[in-house]
Amino acid sequence: MSKKKNQWNLKKTLASLAVLAFVGGALYYGLSGTEAKSDDSGNNPDAKTVIVGTGANFRPFVYQDGDGKDTGYEIALIQAIDKKLPEYKFKVDHYEFSNLFPALKNKKIDIIANQIESNDERRSEYDFSETGYTNYDLHIQSLTGGYESLDDLKGKKVYAIAGGNAPALLEAYLEEHPGAFEIVYGSWSDQVLLQNFKNGTVDATLATKYTVNFTNKQLGSDYKVSKTAINESSTYYLFRKNDKEEAKLNKAVSRVLKEFKEDGTLKNLSEEYLGGDYTK
């Protein structure tokens, strides 16, 4: 599993983002989009329902297929875990990214499954699964290429979704290099983002290689990515702290994740949905 490169001090920036996420979440409940149930709810009538919070249009992790059904790596993995835990019945609810965190704190959901990276602020507020399940190495994505470090983005407009580690990295860099580039915040779909790249609204963003490869395949785009990663990390499930039932759930889910790593299930799902093994 990759170790995160602590290139900049993110503490101050991430703390600010956490506050913004909490405030935004209070305004968003009831507008979180569609719900989707796991394909397998088991045969146990006493199974406890677990609400899994995830995104809605986050390809290739979670999105809707041509029939409007949930699909993607996150969905497939949650369904596979559900089948291994007959004492639980998983149900998926969709949220904007920044609203997942207050939803977990306020017991609207029981797990966050949305490619969440680890950092000190999050570790202080939430419990993480004992095992990570995806490498999440961020590269610079653009239509032109030629960007190998944040220094290369001088004078450019860089797209980011508020609440994640990517904008935190960008904001931390700007604290040390004021005015180096402009961050353009948004929550656009893949199609809208591509159009904004084409019309010059944005010049670059941070993304994983497999996300870019998936987008190029789906949209016929020709995005380029930097050869080197700007940041290396892994993703985890998040649970509420100081909650006995959540701790029990975390232990069960983490046990299955470990099994899936050992028996190749996680690798197979990664290859199917992400185009390669990004679970090491």
UniProtKB/TrEMBL annotation:
Residues 49-277 form the Solute-binding protein family 3/N-terminal domain. Keywords: Signal. PANTHER family: L-CYSTINE-BINDING PROTEIN TCYJ, MEMBRANE-BOUND LYTIC MUREIN TRANSGLYCOSYLASE F. It comes from the Bacteria. The keyword Signal applies. InterPro entries: Solute-binding_3/MltF_N (IPR001638). This is Amino acid ABC transporter substrate-binding protein, PAAT family.
